[in-house]
Amino acid sequence: MDISSAGLRVLRQIAESGSFTAAAARLGYTQSAVSRQAAALERSANATLFERRPDGVRLTSSGLTLLRHAHTVLASLAAAERELTGTAPRAELVRLGVFLSAGAAMLPAALAHLTAADPQITVTTSEGTTPTLIRALRAGSLDLAVLTSRPPHRPFDGDSPRLHTETVTDTELVVAASSTGEFAGRTTVHVDELVDAAWIATPSSDSEPLLGVWPGLPGRPRIVHSVRDWLAKLQLVAGGFGVTTVPSRLSPVLPPGVNLLRVDGAPPEIRRVLVARLSGHPTPAIAAVTRAITSTA
pTM above the 0.90 mark? Predict the structure, then answer.
């Protein structure tokens, strides 16, 4: 096979982003360039590597096989570049992904613990939804990820390579509302009262979940603000511009003017926080970061 490193990077990015369009945006290519690279890869491999689906692009079993070897090839090329330029890192690096609210609730304490216990380890972080982080783990763009799941907490999916997961903690989903608004002075709200509420939600897509709206809402939500940033969402809540859902463990970092409400009239929504990596024996650095996350949760 005659496969370029650029082709392998395209393969990895398609696996991570789940679409040709998103892969092109992240790589700085045109979509047609990514499509040409994908077609060239399939010709060189003499195999179908990509499965086009309504919710995006997945790698076939042949694509996953090539991706596994791409990890090794691209890591070796990166190591060679560092050695040739004299920029080999002195610290052990762990690339950590966290779901959208974990950065505020968990990350500072975990990194502080790690700095004290294992100062030789450097952690870089990126934020995303659980589906995005799972794709990044499988594509080799992350070493470790903090994910969330809802009952019945089944395995995330049947794709390969398999993931090793470890439960960190369970947390209850609650509603964040203005402390001076309609629900002022209350600790609970009935689910029927939320039907007509103005919701502040994270944008969703075919492959990404809708975040910020109560899952058991008996009716179509009225979304008035579509915002990804958690601080922006909570500041909008504090200003009385709507309500949103948050894990209860966010309570220590809430801005002034935000009140948390448990929801009556509906089953409790429990979210499980997990740390995940590819199966196999972890490196000492990955194991140390895992310990820091689980010990400070």
Answer: no
